[in-house]
Design a protein that fits this description.
heterodimer; A: about 160 residues; alpha/beta; Mannitol-specific EII, Chain A; four-stranded mixed beta sheet; B: about 100 residues; alpha+beta; four-stranded antiparallel beta sheet; about 35% helix; about 25% strand
Chain lengths: ~160, ~100
Amino acid sequence: MKLSDFIVAEAIIPELQSTDRNGVIRELVESLKKYGKVAAGDVEAIVRAVIQRENQGSTGFGKGVAVPHAKHSAAKKMVATIGRSSAGVDFAALDRAPVYSVVLLLSPQDHPDEHLQAMESIFRHLQQDNFRRFLRQADSVEAIVDLIEEADGSPS
Amino acid sequence: MECVVLESQSEPLEMEREVTVLNEQGLHARPVMQFVDTAAQFVSEVRVQCNDTIVDGKSPMEMMLLAATQGTQLKLTARGSDAARALDALAELIERGFNEE
């Protein structure tokens, strides 16, 4: 699965305004709403679900990245977007380091396989040092979109 | 009994076991964390293979690359003085479906 199959490019936030975990989650869900990928009436429930999931165990697996996510009945198809913070956000990450790149993923409830494939695709790129470094440096939507397209085109 | 004998050897012991992912949601982030937390309790190196992908069983990011769905067979390999106990604990975790329904 390619990143561009589910990442909503328009909703990417190259400089997050929020400085705390819950604020970042809300900002990204609001951005998906703004571009019609989340219904206005579902924002609260989805934000709550992602925060609740995060409270069960941080998706900050280390190295400055986090992938907050939820499977939710309001998600009709899989959507994700990316937020970047130059200051860093405390995600209670496993290595306790601040998080600079956040990928928020919303999946429908009844397609666990698709969700696993999307997570595989996200982590396949996030675990590469170059991808993480370029993502952390990408300070515009265009730069992040270019990086995603390049990653999708590379064989690894 | 056999374990005691093997653990006293100086050569690192390598053992493997095949297990099937049973929980409906597959090996998603929470089960991966449970697996990694369990693996971390042992000194043995742990590797997990799913089809052609082999990853470090102590790295949550690498474990996510398995994308192992319900019914997938995994090969667990442990290498070290507590390999047998590590495999027992990890196989048991997977076989009870990570306490998910």
